[in-house]
Write a structure and sequence with these properties.
The protein is 77% helix and 0% strand. It has 212 residues and is mainly α. The protein starts with a helix and ends in a 7-residue tail after the last helix. Keywords: DNA-binding, Transcription, Transcription regulation.
């Protein structure tokens, strides 16, 4: 009985990925604000309601790895080795993502199109800011949970806000580095250097708390 369920799950994931791929291509070709849901549905060969069943908002099709990012942050904090602080665990996560060539930290000609599409849409820029705030809340909650502190915890919120701000600066500067050099290794070095510096700053700011 498990096989039909697995098959349905695979089909659902394939449909979702097909919609996302079609949407991404259209967004890059025409700009996010100039593409309609009907055009995406036609390109993916599905109905309009099928699109909304998988993606409640059009911008969700662009930021389709959002939930994966949340899960990665939670896991880095909750599943860290004994003796590793939460701030250090997140710093190590950044290095691991780069070493694994994760799409979250992809600095390449392809990723430049992603950045240009965001910069060309006020809707996407607003959603990107909202996602950053939501990720900060995810990190703050995970930090407080691992420390056994009541939620909300102001020190966890401070740590999360500083960490996400540092990662945002590192991410954007790494993309600028690639745009200037066309050198992925140089962009990765920029990203990790800024993450390391930001993590050191957060550790100093949170000295004496359970988060460092």
């Amino acid at each position: 009985m498990s096989t039909p369920t697995d098959l349905r799950s695979r089909k659902r994931l394939a449909t979702r990925q097909g919609i996302s791929n079609a949407a991404t291509r259209l967004f890059h070709e025409h700009g996010f604000d100039h593409v309609t849901v009907d055009q995406i549905a036609a390109a993916a060969d599905v109905g309009r309601m099928t699109v909304f069943n998988h993606f409640p908002r059009k911008e969700d099709m662009f930021f389709d790895r959002d939930e994966e990012g949340r899960d990665a942050l939670r896991e880095a904090i909750h599943a860290r080795d004994a003796g590793v602080s939460p701030v250090e665990a997140l710093r190590r996560l950044a290095h691991r993502l780069v070493s694994q060539n994760s799409p979250f930290v992809n600095f390449s000609a392809q990723s430049q199109g992603f950045i240009r599409t965001i910069e060309g849409s006020e809707t996407l820029k607003a959603r990107a800011r909202a996602i950053r705030d939501e990720l900060a809340e995810v990190v703050a909650q995970a930090l407080a949970e691992t420390a056994g502190r009541p939620i909300p915890d102001v020190e966890a919120q401070l740590a999360a806000g500083l960490l996400l701000a540092g990662w945002t600066v590192a991410f954007l500067d790494a993309h600028r580095t690639f745009a200037l050099t066309q050198d992925t290794a140089a962009a990765q070095k920029t990203f990790l250097s800024l993450v390391d510096r930001g993590s050191a700053g957060v550790a100093a700011a949170l000295n004496g708390t359970p988060y460092v």
